Amino acid sequence: MDTWPLLTAERLALVACGVPAAGLLAAVGLYRRLPLAHRLFSACLAAGSLAGAGLGLLGLLADRPLRIAFAGPHPSLPVTLLLDPLAGLFLLLICGLAAHAAWYGREYALHGDPAPSLLLQDLTVAGLIAAMAGVVLSNDVVTFLATWELMTVATFVLVLQEHGRTEARKAAYVLLVASQLGTACIVVALLGLAQQAGSLSFDAFRQLGPLSPALRNTLFALALIGFGTKAGLVPLHVWLPLAHPVAPSHVSALMSGVMIKTAVYGLIRCCFELFRDLDASWGLAILSLATVSAFLGVLFALMEHDLKRLLAYHSIENIGIILMGVGAGLWLEASAVPVLGGYALAAALFHTVNHGLFKALLFMGAGSVICATGHRNLEEMGGLLKRMPRTGLTFFIGAMAICALPPLNGFASEWMVYKTLWALSQAADPWAQPLGALVAAVLATVGGLAAACFAKAFGVAFLGLPRSRRAADAVEVGPDMWVPMASLAAGCALLGLVPGLVLPLLARALPACVNDAAPALTDPGAFLALPVPAGPAPYLSPIAILVAIGLVPLGFHLAWRWLGESFDRPRVYGPWSCGYPGDAPAPATGGGHVAMGRAQYTATAFSQPFAFLFRQFFSRRKLLDVHAKKTEYLPERIVVRIRIRSPFDRWIYGPLRLTVLWLSGRVARIQAGSVQLYLGYMLATLVLLLLVAP
Amino acid sequence: MNILETVVLWTLHLAGLLFWPLVLVGVIRRAKALLTCRRGPPILQPVRDIAKLLRKREVLADTTTWVFAVTPWVSFAVVVVVGLMVPLATGRTPLAGRADLILLVYLFALDRFFRTVAAMDTGTAFGGLGASRESFVSTLAEPALVLSLWCVGILTGSLDLGEMVCRFAGLAQLVLSPVYLLVLLPLVLVALAENCRIPFDDPTTHLELTMIHEAMSLEYSGRGLALMEWASMMRVGIWLALIANLFFPAGLADEVLTPHLLVGLASFALRTVVLAVGVALVEVTFARLNFFRIPDLLGLAVASAVLALIRIVTLGR
Hints:
The complex is a heterodimer of chains A (about 700) and B (about 325). Among the domains of chain A are: about 280-560, no CATH class; about 650-690, no CATH class. Helix content of chain A is about 65%, strand content about 5%. Chain A is built from 26 helices and 5 strands. A two-stranded antiparallel sheet of chain A has the order 1-2. The N and C termini of chain A lie far apart (about 60 Å). Chain B has about 325 residues and is an all-alpha fold. Chain B has one domain. In chain B, about 70% of the residues lie in helices and about 0% in strands. Chain B is built from 12 helices and 1 strand. The two termini of chain B are about 35 Å apart. Strand 3 of chain A pairs parallel with strand 1 (about 60) of chain B, so a sheet runs across the interface.
C-alpha cells in the first residue's frame, strides 16, 4: 500500500461516502431539472461505488485486516467495522456491480415518464448500496442487524416504486413479511451467541469455546433459516420471484446480483468462523437443500414467460449451485479434509462472483428490452437482435455464461463445483461418494434445463420475427445502458478465460480453517487453467478450448483453399414457411390473418414438453376465453391464459396463511372495545408479572 | 512423446475423427437397407454428399442473423474438439490429460445450445419445434450420461477420458459383473438419444409432426448444411468409439509407434463397424417411440445407472 500513497483506505472511504453525498446536495439543488439532477447523482453514485470497490480490493490485498470503530448511539454499543479479505471480496463485488448498475440507471430510470419521486428512488438505491456494504463490513451484532434491516427497508421501497400495480404491492408485502421472519431467526441466533460470548462483537464469537451440541445446532438452524430466506433457498424462496421482477431493472440487477449474496456471506461467516465444530451433517443438509433449490429454481424458470421473473427464478438455481459448494465445503472441512473444503468454498465464492456478473448483465439486458418494447412478456418480443445488436450480443454472452457453457465464467466455476462433488468421495462419511454422484447428475440436468430455458428466452425474445408491433419498432438503447452491459460481458469472458485473475484473490478470502487450499489456487500454473483440488498441476484451460475451437474453422479454410476450391457469398432468400407469406407484417393484436411472426413457436410451446413431464411439480391450468359476437364457431378473439401455481404456495404457504388469519380472528375476540376490559387486562398482566418475578 | 509420434497420432486421430464417421454412417444406412430387403446407397455415399454440398452455394434465410451463420462453424469446431478428447484407435488422445468428462458434457451442451438457438433464428414454426424437442430429449439424457460415466470414473479413479478408457479396459473381471451391463445400457440409450436415432428420433423423417433433429437443420443449405451434417456424423462416430473403447476394448493400442498400432486400427475399424450394424439392427427392429414415452426410456437409463452406483458403492465391483 505504501507504493500508492494516494490510495489509502481512509481516502477511498472518504471518496466513497463523500462524492455521492455531494452529488445528492447538488441534485437537490437542481430539483427543478429532474433528469439532469438524476444523471448527476447517479454518476456520483457510480464514482463513489468505484471508490468502494477500490476499498474492497485494498482490503482483499492487505496483509492485516483493517478495523474501524465509531462511537455508537450508546457508549456500550460502538459501531465496529472489519475489512478482512472475505469482507473485501464481497465489498469489491457489491460496489463493482453497484457502479455498473448506477451508470445504467442514469438512462434507464428516465425511460417512459420519470416519476417526480425519481430522486427519492435514487437515494434509496444509494441507501441499498451503503447497507449492503455495511452488512459485509460490520463486526458486531448491532451494526450488522441495523444494516441488514436497512437493506430490507431499501428493497421494500424500491419494490414499491410502481405502487400503482397490485402486483408490486403484493410483492412488497410478501418481501417484508419474509424478510422480517428471516431476520427474527438471525436475531435469535446472533443474540444466542452473544449471550454465550458475553459480548456483542463478532471477535468475541470467534474466540468462543465449544458450545453444547443442542444449543449450537439450534442456533445454527435458526441462522440457516434466516440467511436461507434472504438467499432464496427453497422452500423459503417465495418472496424472491415476486419482488425481484417488479423493481426497476437496474435495482433488480443489484438485488439478484449482489443483495442475495450478502446472505451467502453471512452463511459462510457462520459456517466457517462464528460456529466452531459444526457437525458434518450440516454440510449434508445444506448440500441437499441447495440441490433441491437448483433443480426447482430452473424448473420454475423454464415455465416462466415474464423475462424478469424468469431471471429471478434462475437466481434461486444459482444460489443452489453456490450453496452446493458451501455445503460440500462444510462437509469436507468437518470430515477433517480442509484442503478439499477450502477448494469447495473457493468454487462457491467463484460462482458467487460469476453469478453477480452475468445475472446483473442479464437483468440489464432485460431492462433494455423493456425500455425498447415496453413488454416484459417474451411472447410480445422477437426479432430484437436485428434491431438491438449490442443488447442482443451482450445478452447472448450472459445467457451462455449462465448456462455454464465453456469457455465463459459460469463454466469455470461450475467445473470447480463438479470437482468438489468428485472430491466428496474423500469425506469420511460412506454416503458422501454416492451422494456426490447423484448431486452431479442433478447438476447436469440443471445445466440442461438452464440451456433449454435460455435457448427459449434468447430465441423467443431476440431471434426470429417480431411478435408484436412494439417489438418491430424497437430501437437500440443509448450508450449509458449498453456500455455497462458490454463491460459486464467482457468481465464474464475474462474471468472464464483467465481464472488466474480472480482465483488468487479468492484464495486470500478463504476463512482461516480452510485456507490450506490456497496453494492449489495460487499456483502460477493456474493462471490460464482451472485448478484441481489436489494432485498434479491444473490442467483444464478454457482459453486453450477457445483457441482449439477457433483453429478448426481456420484449418478448414486453409485446407479448402489448398484444395483449390473457392467460397461463394451466400444468397439471401426467404425462409421456407409452408407457403405462408414470409413478409406479411405482424398484426398489433391477435386475430385477423395468420402472419408469420405469430406463426413462430411461442415460449409456451417451447416449454410445453417440460411442463407435461414435470406436471407433478406445479399445478398448471389452462384457461380458454373465446370471445365471439354471433356464434362461438366464428370467434373474434381467443385468449389463452396459463396459470401456474407453485406447490409451496398450494401446500405450505396457502394453508399457513389461512391458519394465521383464522388464529388472528380468534385472538381478535379479546379486543372487545370496552375500556374496563382493557384495564382488567393490564391489572391481570401486572399481577401475573408480580407472581412470576422472583 | 517425440515429434514423430505426435505427428502420427494427430494425423491418425484427425483422419479417424473426420472421415471414418462418414463411412460408419454409410454402413448404418447400407445395413438398414439390406436388412429391409433394399439395395441401399453405396457405403461411401455420405462422403459424396458432403463433398457435393460443400461446393454448393449457401442460401441464407432473410430472417436470420449472425447466430444462424456462425452456428455450422461453431458446431463443427466444437465436435472436432470433443473428438480430439475421446480415444479412437489408441488409448492416447491428442488432448490427453486436458479433457475430462465434465468438459465433454458441456462442450456437447455448447454445440447443442448454438444449434437450438440457430433453429429459432429462422423465424419459422419448424425451427422452434425442433429446438424445443431437441432440448427436451437431450436434457433428459444428461443425468444418465453423467451418472453412468461417473460410475466408470469411480471404478477407474479418474474423470479424465483417456485414463478412464485405458483403466476401464484393464478391469478384465468386470465383464462378468452386473455393473458392466448396468453402465452399458444407459450409455447405449444416451448414444441413441443424442444422435437422434430410433427409438428416440428417426433420422430419415422429414414429416413435421415427427421430426426432431431434421427440423433444426431444415433451413440450412450448401456449405452450412454440409458442416451441420458432417458434425452430426462425427457425433455418431465419437459415441460409437466411446462405447467400443469402454466396453469392447479388445485390441485397443496402448502406444502409437508400435506394431500394435496396426492391430489397434484394424480392431477399431472392426469394432465400430459391428456397433454401426448394431445401430442399424436396433433401427429396423424397433419402432419410433411416442414423444412423451421418451422420458420413460431415459428414466430407465437413469435407474440403471443408479443401480450400478449402488452396486459399486456397496460391493465394490
